[in-house]
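$ run holo --ligand "magnesium ion" --emit tokens
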Amino acid sequence: MTLTNRPRGTNDVGPGEIELWHQLEEKIRQVCSAFGYKELRTPIFEHTELFQRGIGEATDIVEKEMYTFMDRGQRSLTLRPEGTAPLVRAFVENRYGEGALPVKLYYLGPMFRYERPQAGRYRQFTQFGLEALGSADPLLDVEAIVLPLELYKACGLSGFQVEINTIGCPVCRPAYREELVKYFEPHADKLCGSCKNRLERNPLRLLDCKVEGCQEIMAGAPSITKHLCPECEEHFSQVLAYLDALGIEYKLNHRLVRGFDYYTKTVFEVTCSELGAQNAVGAGGRYDGLVEELGGKPTPAVGFAVGVERLLLALRGQEKAKAETAGPDAYIVHFGGETKQRAAQTAFFLRRRGLWVELDYLGRSIKAQMKAADRLGSRHVLIFGEDELSRGEAVLRDMKDGQEQKVDLQDLEQLAKILGECGQ
Ligand code: ATP
Ligand code: MG
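-- output --
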């Protein structure tokens, strides 16, 4: 470790890239507003127990990925590894459920998981997620799928695929779980280490193991479809009917399960072919038991989370992510001393009108200032020569065509207008 290395699995986002984040964040806010989702900002850390109870003890996240620490008051706190449990905690704590239902909320911010860093997998990453609480309507499952799709489309992303499944509910899942254990037990010695462990603690998770040897065994595993209770069956068929009615393409994948214990009924994942191994750009599902599990009244809910870095990676792969590269509206070239003061006054005036104006802070020669203006891609230079200044004027040069004109420094509104019009 050195002072000048960031921790493994983290990123700096600076000029050239931050513009893409701003564009994406704006699109997120637009789409959410159209669907009636309001932003909720929760703390970056929560009581550890929230995630143990919320995500489930026998999950990869809780077992091995959390950043957990004791604070100076000996409380166990955890940097949030996901956004749903904190949002549900806030929903219960702030009694949002007492208002109009459903409550539609979204979040956007950093999450933390101690994972093996690789392309598209980081230890600090950003999720945009949405949750609709207080209704069991299958149309809300569909909204949770469609909203992110609208976002992907608004960004210009193509080649994404929706996979969908149902994993039943506490009524029908136990029998399926038993059936699975019965099927896997004779194969136990051929399963990978994690799967052997999952077989006892969380057998559904075996279904989405990516290890080759396990995959062969998974192929013959019983499907949940025959075990669904009538309510789950009806719910799932309605979800699919809405998707069909809306013309949303999807693939049924009866081996799709998710890494959180809280899901019930519908689960879904969106993948993008661009991304290679880490190909999920978002995932979600219904979690009708979580609010109650965390101390609230029984409240059905459904949500989705998008990995923002992965979305940007996919967009970059398709050359859809282009940062705006426009330069300043004007660069004021001055001769130091009094001309610099006038340059500063003029710059501040123009900046107050929203124009991007630069000037020299390094005492450079005129030639070097012209070069700096050029390098920044400035549309104009405004030359503050002493002669012109004494007449209350300056020379404005258009950097594209080299045309020059005298501008009246007594009428900065007019100058702002000229620069503003050129910037459009
Ligand atoms: P994966 O199967 O890729 O590990 P996951 O099932 O753990 O994903 P979720 O917890 O459902 O993912 O999170 C939703 C989305 O957040 C993922 O689809 C992915 O785009 C993104 N994501 C998850 N973990 C990471 C990470 N460590 N780094 C970057 N993005 C991530
Ligand atoms: Mg994961």
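-- notes --
Residues 82, 113, 115, 120-122, 125, 127, 259, 278, 280-283, 305, 307, 309-310 surround adenosine-5'-triphosphate (ligand 1) (CB under 6 Å).
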